[in-house]
Specification:
With 419 residues, the chain is mainly alpha-helical. It is built from 18 helices and no strands.
Length: 419
């Protein structure tokens, strides 16, 4: 096949998969901020509904490392392509079924129990998605283009966010609050089937990566990749986990927490704040593009370290900026945070694979990415809500500052090259 055409298919397959990932996760994050609490939990306490809603959001993050180990096992033993197809089907199927769930008013506590099962399925499937998509891109990249190819899966984040946020914005404009709560929130979950179908169609048309084929020719794949990983590369795993915390923390504070806080505490209309976030999302895409190009010219390690250092600075201003009276200040706060996220997120596809040898690489980057997601993603909205309650919006950014420091430490103490 023509190399240009093959590279186009690889980049599309990587991009679409992570676009589905972020679309799926963000439609749930948005629903969690707006309707999941009242629909799926008792009505005695609004604060309890919000916290329980965010707990269901966080549940999928705890399922992701389990999925990372399971899908990483097969990705390192039988190949990247087949594993990616399976992860996308599980992830997409779980998301699609959420559209058909009955509410607490219909069947009581069975409703949140079913919701938690599907959230676990979502997270389990996602556990193998990002790592495989990144390897698909990086291990097929021409020499000197690894970071730019590796940034393709990351561009799925703003694309998925754009689709999810835009659809919720359209629904908010076209439906009353009552209709949105009654059935409108289900539409984005139904629509996920279209993206999943596109992702499967593209992935079934690509082949295995050259790096995996070469590794198979040299030696049998490890029988238990995760055992070999933790036995020989524990330091790299810990560094990788720390290295991804900052990007998750920024994303879910600037999206999930910010939307919930702005519409419940700051007096913003849902559509107004979704519009602000939609505009700020373009700065995330810009940051990823800058990071990919810069990392190929310098190094992924340098760019990620810079993104981590800037995250520390953003954390010092984030809470005050989010609580500002001017929507323009709020927009500038979100835009700058998401641009910095791009610098911390864009290099990951090129940086993480350098920490692990090919025979445990799928497992290694998947475990690191998803364990870091628990710290930076699952805890972010919950911790920010607690900090805001303790000391107001000024305290919210403390979580970002700590996340940036953790990622900076992970970069500084990471091995230079695993081979």
């Amino acid at each position: 096949m023509n190399p240009i055409r093959q590279h186009g298919r690889v980049l599309t397959a990587s991009l679409v998969g992570t676009a589905v990932e972020f679309y799926d996760f963000y439609i749930y994050a948005t629903a969690a901020a707006l309707v999941i609490g009242p629909l799926f939990f008792p009505t005695e306490s609004e604060a309890a509904q919000t916290l329980l809603s965010f707990m269901t959001f966080g549940l999928a993050f705890f399922a992701r490392p389990v999925g990372a180990i399971a899908f990483g096992h097969f990705g390192d033993r039988i190949g990247r392509k087949s594993t990616l197809v399976a992860s996308l089907m599980l992830m997409g199927g779980s998301t699609f079924l959420i559209a058909f769930l009955p509410t607490y008013a219909m069947i009581g506590w069975v409703a949140p129990a079913l919701l938690c099962c599907l959230r676990f399925g979502q997270g389990f499937g996602l556990g193998g998605e990002w790592g495989g998509a990144s390897l698909l891109a990086v291990e097929n990249a021409p020499k000197g283009w690894e970071a730019r190819f590796g940034s393709a899966p990351q561009l799925g984040a703003p694309l998925g966010f754009l689709c999810a946020n835009g659809l919720f914005l359209l629904l908010g404009k076209g439906l009353s609050d009552a209709d949105f709560a009654a059935w409108g929130w289900r539409v984005p979950f139904l629509a996920s089937a279209l993206l999943v179908g596109l992702g499967l169609w593209v992935r079934l048309k690509i082949g295995e990566t050259p790096a995996f084929k070469e590794a198979l020719e040299k030696a049998e794949p490890p029988k238990v990749p995760v055992g070999l990983l933790f036995r020989n590369h524990l330091g790299a795993v810990l560094a990788g986990i720390a290295g991804v915390v900052a990007c998750f923390a920024i994303f879910y504070l600037a999206t999930t927490f910010a939307l919930s806080f702005a519409t419940t505490r700051l007096g913003y209309a849902k559509q107004e704040f979704l519009g602000l976030q939609l505009g700020a999302n373009s700065f995330l895409a810009l940051g990823i593009l800058v990071a990919g190009y810069w990392a190929d010219k310098a190094s992924a390690r340098l760019v990620l370290g810079t993104g981590a250092a800037l995250t520390i600075i953003v954390g010092m201003m984030f809470g005050t900026g989010l609580g500002a009276a001017s929507p323009w200040v709020v927009f500038a706060t979100l835009a700058s945070a998401l641009f910095v996220m791009g610098l911390a997120y864009g290099p990951l596809g090129a940086w993480l694979p350098t920490l692990y040898p090919v025979e445990v690489r799928y497992t290694g980057i998947s475990v690191a990415f998803n364990m870091g997601g628990i710290i930076g993603g699952a805890l972010a909205p919950f911790a920010a809500a607690w900090l805001a309650g303790m000391g107001g919006t000024a305290y919210v950014g403390l979580f970002l500052t700590l996340a940036g420091a953790m990622t900076l430490a992970g970069v500084q103490f990471s091995p230079r090259q695993a081979g």
